[in-house]
């Protein structure tokens, strides 16, 4: 079982979870039922009283229709650019070249 450490990730997760909950206009109980968990346990996870498990993130991402990285605050402009390119039917060769160039750029920034 993979557990996600409590930190800024937990704070971002809580913020994004609550935002999605409001947008979808659902209750904790409805979400809990939808992902096969009890409402009290879901509340504890969202409030940071119980460690967030990767399996829970997977279930919630499917429930809300978002990527797992988004729920954990790991999304970035790269993800948005890729999604936009796919939606606009950019040729796969051009998209592949972009991904390689972007990866090289990100790696050079880390040095």
How does this structure look, described?
This protein has 111 residues and is mainly alpha-helical. The chain has two domains: 3-72, lambda repressor-like DNA-binding domains (434 Repressor (Amino-terminal Domain), Orthogonal Bundle), CATH 1.10.260.40; 77-110. 71% of the residues lie in helices and 4% in strands. It has seven helices and two strands; from the N terminus they run βαααβαααα. The chain has helices at residues 8-24, 28-35, 39-46, 54-64, 68-72, 77-87, 92-110; strands at 3-4, 52-53. Strands 1-2 form a two-stranded antiparallel ribbon. The longest helix is centred in the C-terminal third of the chain and has 19 residues, at 92-110. The model is unreliable at 1-5 (pLDDT under 50).
Count of distinct strands: 2
CATH class of the largest domain: Mainly Alpha
CATH fold call of the largest domain = 434 Repressor (Amino-terminal Domain)
Distance between the termini: 32 Å
Provide the domain count. Answer: 2
CATH level-two architecture of the largest domain: Orthogonal Bundle
Q: Order of strands in the sheet with the most strands? A: 1-2
Low-pLDDT residue intervals, each spanning 5 or more residues: 1-5
Q: What structural class do helix, strand and pairing data support?
A: mainly alpha
Mean pLDDT: 80
